[in-house]
Amino acid sequence: MAFSHDEERVRAERARAIGLFRYSLICEPADARLSTRQRGRLVRAIAAREHEGPFGQPVRVSRATLDRWLRDWRRGGFDALVPTPPKVSPRTPADVLDLAVALKREVPERTAVQVAAILRAHSGWSPDERTLQRHFVRL
Question: What ranges do the domains of the chain cover?
């Protein structure tokens, strides 16, 4: 799925905000000078409270999650706390979308409903009309 440059920038900023939120919760327990007992007490106290999430909503974080974030941070630093974007593969085959684009360019007045009907008649299947509309907007 192709995203515009602005969408990618917004996603990266949101992911960074999430990473900063995670770090804000684990920065104190991540102190190497703390004993295991002190760290455990601190993590339990953090897990017992409600926090303001990266986008202003109330959030509770379990002790297991805090422990996982601490391990991730120790292994990979701040970058390990930033969520990675999901790896989504397009569900509509590229050749079907290419044919839909060719049909639309052949007669620009064709609607997505008309293109879908032609695709169904041609191959017995077509993507949803809304999928075609979204794809045509990107042209």
Answer: 5-81, 94-137
